[in-house]
Design goal:
alpha+beta, Aminopeptidase, 7-stranded mixed sheet, two-stranded antiparallel sheet, 4 helices, 9 strands
């Protein structure tokens, strides 16, 4: 398998890859309130909790943005090829908020999942970041995308925060970062 910079001809091949994943868990924010301990007005407490669903769900990209729109704004797009087939891609943006590389979207073809394709693409994204003096990777996913959240955690990303209405449909985003 090779990972290389995408060419304009790769857009159609990447669009053919399904970004949907099946999840059995979601992440929920639990506000912590101990009635025996008075909370100061400038203090909030909460934890993220991984909850099992009664049945699995299928989720796609929460951003709802077309691949073509993401591609046109990207700092770079890397594709993973296995022989003549594109089996994954990662869209990278240079953050406006510091020396970071934002992972706008990472997709692995369903048939290629569990074969370390995603890990190899993150490794290539890290190399890209270092080459452009951006020593931090930042990724985000919906609270409904447990597969992505767990993937970031396995890869050594740390939880960085959340945003209640980050995505157009009002879904909550979880943010993760990893220093390179």
């Amino acid at each position: 398998m090779d990972i290389r910079q995408a060419s304009p001809d790769d857009l159609e091949r990447c669009q053919a890859l399904s970004p949907r994943v099946r999840n059995t868990h979601v992440w929920q924010l639990r506000l912590v309130h101990d009635p025996m301990t008075p909370q100061a007005t400038d203090e909030l407490g909460g934890t993220l909790h991984r909850s099992r669903l009664p049945r699995s769900i299928v989720v796609g990209p929460a951003s709802g943005e077309s691949l073509q729109d993401l591609w046109s704004r990207a700092a770079d797009v890397l594709v993973a090829e296995d022989g003549p087939d594109v089996v994954g891609y990662v869209i990278l943006n240079a953050s406006e908020h510091g020396p970071q590389v934002e992972i706008a979207r990472l997709v692995v073809a369903p048939a290629a999942r569990q074969n370390r394709v995603g890990s190899r693409m993150l490794s290539a994204a890290a190399q890209w970041g270092m080459a452009y003096q951006r020593p931090t990777l930042v990724g985000h996913c919906s609270t409904r995308n447990d597969v992505a959240a767990r993937f970031y955690q396995r890869w050594g990303f740390r939880f960085a925060g959340y945003s209640e209405a980050f995505y157009p449909r009002g879904e909550i985003a979880l943010f993760f970062y990893r220093a390179l």
